[in-house]
Amino acid sequence: MNGSILAVSRRLLAGGLSQLLLSILLFSPFTATNAYEPTWESLDQRPLPQWYADAKIGIFIHWGVFSVPSYGTEWFWYNWQGTKKQEFIDFISKTEKPNFAYADFAHRFDATLYDPKYWAEIFAQSGAQYVVLTSKHHEGFCNWDSRDIGTTWNWNSMDVGPRRDLVGELANAIRDPSVVSPKTNRPVKFGVYHSLYEWFNPMMAYDKSTNLTSHTFVDSKTMPELYQLVEKYQPEIIWSDGDWGVNSNYWRAKEFLAWLATNSSVKDTVVWNDRWGDDAKCKYGSYWTCHDNYQPDHTVEHKWENCMTLDKTSWGWNRKAKYANYMTTKELVDEVVATVARNGNILINVGPAADGTISPIFVDRLLGLGQWLQVNGQAVYGSQPWKVCDQDEYIDVYYTRDNELLYAFLTKWPTDNEVPLMCPVVSENTRAFLLGVKNADKHSVEVVSSTSVGLRSSVEQAAVTIKLPNLNPDEVPCDHVWVIAMTAIRNLDDDAISDMKIS
Fold first, then answer.
1. Is residue 266 located within the same domain as residue 400?
2. How far apart are CA 350 and CA 315, in angstroms?
3. Which residues constitute the domain of residue 199?
4. Contact yes or no for 423/416 (Cβ under 8 A)
5. pTM of the entire predicted model
6. How confident is the model at residue 41 (pLDDT cuts 50, 70, 90)?
7. 191 shares a domain with 318
8. Strand 446-451's sheet: what is its strand order?
């Protein structure tokens, strides 16, 4: 779509464009000949961009006006004035003057120490391949220059608070050529989180009063915001949320996604999640998120993402959090391994403070993950789930594979240095080695025994014992989760049995 038509469509959206007229504009003769139709069936035909399949690890950032009270949860406003929980009412009574309004917090959301370059460097060092920033949470505050939409006056980061384009600054910092992942040497991708819904927006209340037969909120605010975010910042991830209990037809989601995949400036590389309506969640999307902390206990063939947070109690910065509320580096690495083994990506959330600082405890965990990936990233980035087996449950060993090697992730180092694996079927050419170990000839990994079975027999009947080398503490390649790489595994793929030679 050319720029003039897109500009017209955006202005019409802001004035309450009907769904029919929107479809005519988006799928007029000016559109591409290979247009995706605004149906889930058509959109599902779009291949997943390879970069996302290979990336595995992203960073989530929850940052907004809720970062000012930073008390309990990013749902502070709703808990205070929506459900009216006494704890939050008491907090305001103790800390603020009478007649205090939530909007007054926005003046303190100042981002005075916000350093997007530092953020980008930390995220890259963590090994993350993409970053997703909250552009707008359910409170409705826009973290970008949304002033020309016309419905965010004094409730965006340019009019009040930081008086900075928070989204634009981080997008530029992430895309700086110097920001690359140390292990993959690839640029980090930038994306945005955007809530379809707003708790207390009167236009949303009006649409609810019509039983959602009107689309005032969607046409005047939600859709103009999404189109503007794509036009201004070219995000390669659109992370939608706030679709709760409403059909995607109300949100006009399919029309937007068809435009995104067909005519937008990021049409070839962008990905989106599944939170576009109760008919879409865990069913449609480039990848599925299903629910927060989604972690299935088996391999899911459709690409999925585990969005989780380092502070187990909150997505936003929480001053109430205790040390025990934060994931340890070991817990984080374990979560990454379990996710990747089952065909998932992991989106690791941090909550910056209102002034733009990121707590050292978040930085410590992210850098700890980055150090682990420097040793073991070969088994993570670009890997595939192993169709035969994703986990030896008895000993908590997870598996991934690439075109040459099978990787076994040991979440515990065995006391006798011997690891019995029930899934791999070895061949006479099978060799094994420990990723990151120095002087591999001296510290070799030995395949000490195996039970030979037919390739189509039950996997539980197969067994191979791997004997790890005796290592001094300073010779152990990493502190958490050690990876054994194996070559010439006979059942490397259950569809194409391979007896590959040692490389």
1. no
2. 7
3. 3-376
4. no
5. 0.91
6. very high
7. yes
8. 418-421, 463-467, 446-451
